[in-house]
Amino acid sequence: MVAASLAPGAVARQVAVRYGVHPNQLYAWRRELVSVAGAGFVPVTLAQPSGGGRSAMGAAVEIALGEAVVRVTPGVEMGFLSAVLRAVKSA
């Protein structure tokens, strides 16, 4: 939803209404994205779980940035993760 609201020509208020959220909430998410992620979005690809159909709840998430892979486990502090991702992206 945030990505859709940031697309060229998009009107954030219309995007919020389309998804059934109050425009103020969408604006808050946009501000949070900038404060946490800094520059924006990272492409995400979902892979099939390798655990024979096990639930992925509680599993680590791997974020590939070029040749680097950052593995994130549940409960990671967002500020720390943001700093790590910025460092990897700038390396």
Question: Can you walk through the features of this model?
Answer:
This protein has about 90 residues and is mainly α. The protein has 4 helices and 2 strands, in the order αααββα. It has a two-stranded antiparallel ribbon. Strand 1 and strand 2 form a beta hairpin. The radius of gyration is 16 Å and the shape is elongated. The model has no long low-confidence stretch (mean pLDDT about 80).
Brief summary of the model shown:
The protein is built from four helices and two strands, in the order H-H-H-E-E-H.
Element order, helices and strands? HHHEEH
Cα Rg:
16 Å
The parts where pLDDT drops under 50 for at least 5 residues are none
Portion in beta strands: 5-15%
Shape: elongated
Number of domains: 2
As a percent range, the share of helical residues equals 40-55%
User: How is the biggest beta sheet arranged?
Assistant: 2 strands, antiparallel
Helix and strand layout, with pairings?
Blueprint: H1 2-6, H2 12-19, H3 23-37, E1 61-65, E2 68-72, H4 78-90
Antiparallel strand pairs: 1-2
Helix pairs in contact: 2-3
List key phrases describing it.
91 residues; mainly alpha; two-stranded antiparallel ribbon; 4 helices
